[in-house]
Amino acid sequence: MSFIADKQTLEDLNILGKYKQHSVFNLFNKVKTVGGEKLLSEMFQSPLLNHEAINRRSAIFQYFQSKQITFPFSNEQFSRLENYLGSSSANNYLSTLLTLAQKKLLGAVIRDEEYQHIKTGLQQTIAILNSCKIFISQLEETREQQYPPFYDELLTVKNILNNPKLQWLATWQSTRQTSLQKTAKYDHLLRHTMRAPLTIVMNIFHQLDVYIAVAGLAQEKGFSHAHALPAGSNLFMAVELSHPCIEKAVANPVDFNQESNMIFLTGANMAGKSTFMKAFGINVYLAHMGFPVAAKEMKFSVREGLYSSINVPDNLDMGYSHFYAEVLRVKKVAEAVSKEKSLVIIFDELFKGTNVKDAYDATLAVTAAFSEYRNCLFIISTHIIEAGEVLQKEQDNIQLLYLPTIMNGTIPAYTYQLQPGISSDRHGMMIIENEGILELLK
User: What are the residue boundaries of the DNA mismatch repair proteins mutS family domain, all occurrences included (predicted)?
Assistant: First the structure.
């Protein structure tokens, strides 16, 4: 069982994508190794469902953030280690010796450089492994707790690098005159005998790369660490929640519980509704990954998934209009909600692809129906403020919030700060007039 976030939701919130501008993945992708980036990508594609697992990962990020440690290797350095240990090797020492002797002879006769490449790779790998050993010992010296987060992994690395078979690492001296026999002995040991445990060391250093990079970003951005609660408590509380990818984003409080599990959001165009909803959705997703969140404080009940409907495209190939695409999206979400899953649902401007009367009736009916599922959390935005007035009288679990517009004469300004109530802003024609569109057409 895994956390549900379908393609539409991931695209709405711009979660994934190394090459997508302003994606959340790119914000956190400050790692230095290829293996670290791969691990980070896997984490982004697999949010967690267990509150204990979420809090453990979060605690690791907090630990490394408190230490403010720098990852000691560049991508180039660590790639040398991975390439060397990942290359093929003979199954026994004699075969290794014979193979290297042949390569050395070829190097002398026809200037074949493969033997020198192996020797250089061996020397670089030994140097990096010694650096790994020093780094782990420094981490141990700085730990304040008896068993800090990530202690078991650090102990695993320490035990592998302290293996008696690797005792020679500390006294090894880099020299161009290393004999063929010693080169073969150490090459066979590292690339065959100790390959599996050294692969574990590399994997743990990939984890260190991710934890140190993400912790550093959290420190730089002033992010906090959300606390996960068991699924049944149906709670979400955030203080000063904002969009993590927007510099100096305006922050807002968000508070849900069993008796108040839906926000009905109104406000003018450009007042910030979509940005607020995306900020909420992104932080919900990050929190389920155990990652730092853009909030001063956050605690939440673990959910089973997240659905959004923000930028629903039409599908001309299938013959779908924009309105029908919206309807199909709402149907898909309704199917998931009706299965009694604990979900987070975000709808931005329901049914904007149809006429005002149908949009009013549909928004009112669908919102009222969804509000009966109190195991889920909903944010639904609309321009149809009349629907909010009816819902306020009929439903007791809906928070009516709006994002205001302040008029400076005929010029609108936006606070991006949530206010209780329903928006009464109707400034569309004023904005059109400010842009001089009607004058152009005279």
Answer: 260-442
Return left, alpha or beta for 68; rule: phi > 0 is left, psi -120 to 50 is alpha, else beta: left
Domain match, 337 and 249 both: yes
pLDDT grade for 2, boundaries at 50, 70 and 90: confident
% of the chain exceeding 90 in pLDDT: 50
Look at the chain and report how many structural domains it folds into.
2
Rounded CA separation 215/207 (Å): 12
- 50-64, 134-148, 243-257, 362-376: segment of lowest average pLDDT: 134-148
Report CA-CA distances (Å) from 165 to 160, 188, 239, 413: 9, 12, 53, 70
Altogether, the residues listed in the chain come to a count of 442
Using alpha carbons only, give the angle 185, 206, 120 rounded to the nearest 5 degrees.
30
The verdict on 176 and 208 lying in the same domain is: yes
What is the C-alpha to C-alpha distance for residues 149 and 135, in angstroms, rounded to an integer?
A: 17
Residues 266 and 304 reside in one and the same domain: yes
> What's CA 234's distance to the chain center, in Å?
23
Q: For tokens 């919900």, what's the residue?
A: 284
Kindly state whether residues 214 and 235 are assigned to the same domain. no
* Range(s) of the domain holding residue 267: 223-440
Token pair for 51:
């509150």
Q: Cα dist. 350→31, 322, 365, 382, 383 in Å?
A: 39, 11, 11, 6, 9
Q: Is residue 21 part of a domain?
A: no
Q: Over the stretch 386-411, which tens digit does the pLDDT of each residue have? A: 888 888 888 889 999 999 988 787 78
pLDDT single digits (tens) 283-316: 999 999 999 999 999 999 999 999 999 876 655 5
